């Protein structure tokens, strides 16, 4: 059956075209119920013994997804009209619903009501799209009721009062989600129910707190129409809100419209915005702007600070009244930073949060609903009010809570309990928290994904060796150099002296795309995961272990498939020629960085492998020198290395990660391979290559570095990466750690390097600032990065080995893949850092320590220090809330110092101080490493 809709459309040229949209309707779409006598039961997904079948409306799916994911909710019909609406409104929820519908262990059936001749409904005159969709849901529910003939109860679940009223009037059974959950006699499930806030929604329980009795705490958010107009006229400024990790009452919004960061100080000015929200900001009057150094480090007591924290003028010190700003005798010596307040939320970043409930006495007659405050482990997140019937069982647990709403009459946002993670303080529980907070998928790979793998044991076949696209390089002396204990070896090297006096140098990368085929379940999973995640005590793989540690891993003494980049180089490391080939290799050694370095340093060793290492190292040094001459930056990061007990997995020792020449040698050739591949793929695919860029930092971004350098007598030239690199080379002090510290501070001023599709930007924007390279990509780690998998496919196509997959014709889809890779890459970094912080707490819990630290940032009530020995950073307080007089300090912006008013004591940036490190718990269930002066 064909349903046609005719409408007219006006073209840009003013021509009016008549268009016909055809909608095919069928009568052979199955209902999915095995109890049905009319439909083919082989397509059934619902339970044969189902007494009740649920039909959900759109708002229930959008708002109650945490409840729907609970196994207690089953035998659900998901209508196509509902899925389409959910997809348009929230892709995150849509993906979770699709996962439920495709999960063979859950009984969710998708019914194409929009294509069934008995359930399709036409639009009526003067009917809104929302009303039409509600009617379509009711028609489908009524059809199921009639179709099953009483074999099961069909129940429409809706929280919309009007939709429920109409359904009952039409003879359809209908209930609210809360009413249905209560009928299951599962009080624990009621904690998962999101309490609706809309006035037209029927609520089973309403908090007895009338608006007239509640004080307005926050200003009302502007409507989107007003925000859009204000942004256009320059009255408002748009950007992402980032909350300071050391002070949850201080946030920043990077604004392109004014070319600077806007400081948002105090919960009132944040106006219910969460970290990561895209917000509209209005600048405050200039006499209320703040100097950055006037902003303080919040301590744990500040959690109970009233929301009205913003000072009335720039002369009021934030929170601590015994602090003075500016320099002695001139409080206005420093220009203020733009300050503002949030006037509207453009895009929410709400997700699930991990933490615990604030300790509280059990209410009298426990067993009913209790109000509780949830405290996130992330201090940047405000406390969240929830209702729970499980208070007694949850007080000693880490739990997950989702935010539902934040009323402007409420000090705290409202949310609901999602699930329990485990006991507070348990290492496995706390590690799970790290993964959840950073949206890391650590679930086991599905059977569909594992079915894509070749059977084990796997070995190179005669067909592989005979394949004309693949060169046999097993006679080469190939070796790998990796961190100790590395099992997922995705790169190997060779260096052969040629009769001409030149060298043949090869980078051999695991041929992952030989096993991961486009569009397969394995490829889809890798695409979503984006990257492997390295925690202190374990690795979460992007690909299943049989691939990462066996089939693809370039282990020693086994034949493996590779993708090779091979150069002929002069002794001066000048490239004569470059070729690319699929290959078969057999590594002769899998060395650690320490082993490779020891070989190169031992003058007694003259074997061929050691000679190859030394030759490569000589070439790498020349390549590195040339790269630095072009302007590449040598930056530094505070990488921490733990020694872990193999049985308990507790940290035994902690220290800074040591970089050796062997590390730099491998890095140099990986960089060269990535640059060579970027050049090759872009020549063939100018619009759909996946590249990696590093935007140049703005002068404003580098300002903290310049202020710090000037305070210690350094004049850094930041006019180009080359000028900055040379300045950093000359930044040498008496302290042997001084230069590394300056480089760490420089690293923190940089933007993040990001993946992008070449067709989305112009060639000048491809530039990689840190590497001083006009082109760059990632090719060398396909076992652990999906970006490299894409680049392998591009390189294969550029060589004519395989046809380019059709996905590369879809630019918007490529852009979305790049966006996901950037998101996953950043989350993996954040998870790694959080894992380090967790194990640092575990290590120091029983080991209070005195050590040296360097001051890296001055604040009005203390300073931030960096501890070189352990790679740790944290706040040191000079004043506390309880201090009364005699504790007055002021910030000298010019000298980057904080001085006591009587001149008896001062601390300056980059100064060495002695500190005591000890784990304390100023708030229950929130341990922290406290740093105090000794």
TrEMBL record:
GO biological process: nuclear mRNA surveillance of mRNA 3'-end processing; rRNA catabolic process; rRNA processing
PIN domain residues: 52-165
tRNA processing keyword on record: no
Transmembrane segments: none
Encoding gene (name): LOC115994569
GO cellular component terms, semicolon-separated: cytoplasmic exosome (RNase complex); nuclear exosome (RNase complex)
Family listed: Belongs to the RNR ribonuclease family.
Keywords on record: Exonuclease, Exosome, Hydrolase, Magnesium, Nuclease, Nucleus, RNA-binding, rRNA processing
Residue span of region Disordered: 296-335
Subcellular location: Nucleus
Polar residues: bias regions: 319-335
A molecular function GO annotation: RNA binding
RNB domain sequence ranges: 470-801
Domain of life from the UniProt record: Eukaryota
Protein's UniProt keywords contain RNA-binding: yes
Name under which the protein is recorded: Exosome complex exonuclease RRP44 homolog A
């Amino acid at each position: 059956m064909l349903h046609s809709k005719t409408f007219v459309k006006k073209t840009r040229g003013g021509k009016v075209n008549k268009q016909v949209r055809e909608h095919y309707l069928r009568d052979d779409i199955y209902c999915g119920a095995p109890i049905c006598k009319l439909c083919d039961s082989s397509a059934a997904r619902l339970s044969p013994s189902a007494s009740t079948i649920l039909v959900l409306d759109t708002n229930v799916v959008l708002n109650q997804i945490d409840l729907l994911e609970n196994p207690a909710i089953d035998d659900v019909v998901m209508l196509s009209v509902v899925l389409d609406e959910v997809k348009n409104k929230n892709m995150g929820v849509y993906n979770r619903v699709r996962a439920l519908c495709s999960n063979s262990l859950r009984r969710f059936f998708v019914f194409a009501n929009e294509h069934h001749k008995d359930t399709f409904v036409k639009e009526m005159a003067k009917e809104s799209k929302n009303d039409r969709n509600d009617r379509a849901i009711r028609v489908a529910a009524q059809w199921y009721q009639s179709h099953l003939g009483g074999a099961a109860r069909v129940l429409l679940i809706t929280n919309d009062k009007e939709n429920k009223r109409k359904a009952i009037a039409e003879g359809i059974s209908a209930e609210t989600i809360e009413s249905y959950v209560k009928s299951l006699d599962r009080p624990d499930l009621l904690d998962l129910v999101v309490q609706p806030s809309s006035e037209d929604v029927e609520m089973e329980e309403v908090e007895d707190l009338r608006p007239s009795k509640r004080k307005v705490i926050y200003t009302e958010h502007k409507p989107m129409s007003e925000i859009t107009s204000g942004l256009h006229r320059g009255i408002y400024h748009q950007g992402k809100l980032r909350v300071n990790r050391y002070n949850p009452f201080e946030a920043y919004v990077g604004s392109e419209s004014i070319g600077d960061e806007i400081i948002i100080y105090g919960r009132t000015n944040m106006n219910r915005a969460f970290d990561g929200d895209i917000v509209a900001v209005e600048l405050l009057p200039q006499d209320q702007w703040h100097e950055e150094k006037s902003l303080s480090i919040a301590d744990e007591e500040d959690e109970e600070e009233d929301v009205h924290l913003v000072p009335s003028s720039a002369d009021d010190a934030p929170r601590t009244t015994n602090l003075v700003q500016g320099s002695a005798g001139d409080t206005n010596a420093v220009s203020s930073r733009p300050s503002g307040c949030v006037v509207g939320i453009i895009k929410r970043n709400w997700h699930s949060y991990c933490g615990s409930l604030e300790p509280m006495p059990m209410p009298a007659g426990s067993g009913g609903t209790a109000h509780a405050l949830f405290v996130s482990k992330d201090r940047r997140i405000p406390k969240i009010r929830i209702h729970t019937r499980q208070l007694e069982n949850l007080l000693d647990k880490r739990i997950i809570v989702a935010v539902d709403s934040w009323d402007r009459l409420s000090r705290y946002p409202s949310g609901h309990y999602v699930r329990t993670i485990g006991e507070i303080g348990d290492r496995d529980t706390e590690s799970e928290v790290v993964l959840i907070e950073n949206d890391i998928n650590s679930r086991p790979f599905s059977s569909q994904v594992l079915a894509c793998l070749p059977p084990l044991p796997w070995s190179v076949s005669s067909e592989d060796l005979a394949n004309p696209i693949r060169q046999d390089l097993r006679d080469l002396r190939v070796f790998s150099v990796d961190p100790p204990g590395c099992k997922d070896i995705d790169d190997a090297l060779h260096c052969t002296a040629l009769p001409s006096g030149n060298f043949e140098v090869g980078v051999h990368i695991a041929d992952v795309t030989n096993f991961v085929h486009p569009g397969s379940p394995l490829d889809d999973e890798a695409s979503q995961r984006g990257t492997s995640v390295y925690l202190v005590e374990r690795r979460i793989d992007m690909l299943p272990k049989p691939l990462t540690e066996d089939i693809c891993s370039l282990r020693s003494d086994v034949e493996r498939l590779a993708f090779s980049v091979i150069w002929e180089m002069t002794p001066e490391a000048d490239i004569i020629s470059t070729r690319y080939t699929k290959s078969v290799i057999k590594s002769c050694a899998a060395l650690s960085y320490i082993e490779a370095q020891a070989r190169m340093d031992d003058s007694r060793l003259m074997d061929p492998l050691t000679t190859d290492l030394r030759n490569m190292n000589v070439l790498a040094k020349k390549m590195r020198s040339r790269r630095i001459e072009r302007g590449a930056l040598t930056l530094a990061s505070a990488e921490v290395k733990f020694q872990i007990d193999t049985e308990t997995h507790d940290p035994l020792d902690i220290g800074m990660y040591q970089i050796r020449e062997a590390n730099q040698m491998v890095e140099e050739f990986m960089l060269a391979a990535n640059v060579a591949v970027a050049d090759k793929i872009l020549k063939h695919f100018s619009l759909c290559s996946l590249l990696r860029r590093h935007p140049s930092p703005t002068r404003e971004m580098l300002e903290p570095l310049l202020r710090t350098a000037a305070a210690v007598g350094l004049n850094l030239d930041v006019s180009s990466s080359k000028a900055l690199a040379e300045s950093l080379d000359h930044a040498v002090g008496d302290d042997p750690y001084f230069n590394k510290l300056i480089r760490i501070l420089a690293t923190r001023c940089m933007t993040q390097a990001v993946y992008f599709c070449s067709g989305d930007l112009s060639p000048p924007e491809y530039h990689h600032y840190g590497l001083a390279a006009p082109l760059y990509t990632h090719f060398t780690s396909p076992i652990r990065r999906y970006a490299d998998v894409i680049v392998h496919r591009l390189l294969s196509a550029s060589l004519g080995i395989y046809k380019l997959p059709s996905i590369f014709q879809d630019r918007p889809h490529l852009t979305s893949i790049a966006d996901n890779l950037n998101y996953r890459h950043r989350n993996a970094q954040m998870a790694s850092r959080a894992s380090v912080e967790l194990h640092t707490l575990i290590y120091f819990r029983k080991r209070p320590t005195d050590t040296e630290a360097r001051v890296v940032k001055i604040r009005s009530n203390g300073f931030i220090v960096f501890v070189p020995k352990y790679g740790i950073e944290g706040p040191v307080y000079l004043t506390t809330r309880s201090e009364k007089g005699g504790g007055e300090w002021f910030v000298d912006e010019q000298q980057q110092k904080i001085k006591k008013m009587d001149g008896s004591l001062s601390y300056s940036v980059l100064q060495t101080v002695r500190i005591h490190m000890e784990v304390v718990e100023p708030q229950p269930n929130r341990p922290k490493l406290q740093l105090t002066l000794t």
